[in-house]
Amino acid sequence: MTSPVRLALLGCGTVGSDVVRLLHEQSADLAARIGAPLEIAGIAVRRLGRDRGDLPVDDSLFTTDPLGLIKRDDVDVVVEVVGGIEPARGWLVEALRAGKSVVTANKALLAEDGATLHDAAAEGGADLYYEASVAGAIPLLRPLRESLHGDRITRVTGIVNGTTNFILSAMDATGAGFAEALEEATELGYAEADPTADVEGFDAAAKAAILASLAFHTRVTAADVHREGITEVTAADVASAKAMGCTIKLLCIAARGVDAAGGETVNVRVHPAMIPLTHPLARVGDAFNAVFVEADAAGPLMFYGRGAGGAPTASAVLGDVVAVARNRIAGVHQASESAYADLSVRPMGEALTRYHISLDVADRPGVLASVAGVFARHEVSIATVRQGPAGGDAELVIVTHVAPDAALAATVRELRGLDTVRSVTSVLRVEGGA
């Protein structure tokens, strides 16, 4: 067996601690798979002396100098589970340019400035692996990057945030409102004390950017992703979805398209949407994640599992560690990135979508004609209309055919100003053929 592969671990919180435990518990198997033992050269933490339970490492391995640890000659691989943009970006660029492979779970950094990391990896001849950055333990990024490399992916649709999926699943199951479901998620530990990154869609948008970059061989950043959260989803929306044989999920969607000149584009978005109960993603409940991939030759593929948590994320980290360690022993490294397609990112307004719109309207003759006229002016075709009582007025529930999102949004804006419309009570996109 060859000399040990030595790791610098940046961060020892929930995920980092589980990485350490799995390295200890599975040391013999990991060494056999790699052809060399894995050893921890050091662990960078914010504070020394903190009680870390029964973590199976010597206290002498801990340091508060991550950059010094990275620069050590006896470090081969850097594993980063700290998160955030800075100082993590500086640390990882330093490691990659020095030829040290990097394994990271840092979705925010990859989504904001993955290009800098990929360029540094190419410059240093090092590996950059990040399976744990999206969907926890689910093997997803490696299949996109390697297994499906010979195919043409057309669309990726996913539930990639466990917190929001738990909240929406609870609303669907109990009829609770958003605030009540969020409170339950917080009590059970599924939501952070400040859940903004989850419920406003920032976390899912970062993951959507990473998925789109891999699927379409194009550099996509979080700034390219249209983002909407779930805070405006109501119990009435959920009930309306049920009446249509649908459920509501926060979806990340990345899809190929064509612009007006016939050039190929990609549209990437995160927003709540109704999907039919027959869709494979509809039954993904609780805090689970799932991603539905559509490719020309392979057809539809479904990836499902736990998308967060210390142990599942640590499992993905160690899978990457094994890969980069084996590459290092073999004296090879993977291509840093595949961004040859360089597709233009299509703005949300040009994306073809469908809307479900609920209106409170005056209960008098001519109302439906005036509403229909608004849709006609914006060249939006109506698929179905359902009318029912709503207090002293009437309720109209309209589902559109596919149209440019900008035209649908303009239709809603005009409806809000119509004198026969008391209020627009709900606007949701519809995905998956409902």
From TrEMBL:
Highest taxon of source: Bacteria
UniProt key word Amino-acid biosynthesis: yes
Residues where NADPH binds: K107
Catalytic activities: L-homoserine + NAD(+) = L-aspartate 4-semialdehyde + NADH + H(+); L-homoserine + NADP(+) = L-aspartate 4-semialdehyde + NADPH + H(+)
Binding of L-homoserine, residues: E192
Entry binding sites for NADP(+): L10, G11, C12, G13, T14, V15, G16, S17
InterPro entries reported for this sequence: ACT-like_dom_sf, ACT_dom, Asp/hSer_DH_NAD-bd, HDH, HDH_cat, HDH_CS, NAD(P)-bd_dom_sf
Pfam family, one: Homoserine_dh
Domain ACT: 356-429
GO terms, biological process: methionine biosynthetic process; threonine biosynthetic process
Cofactor(s) it depends on: a metal cation
Protein name: Homoserine dehydrogenase
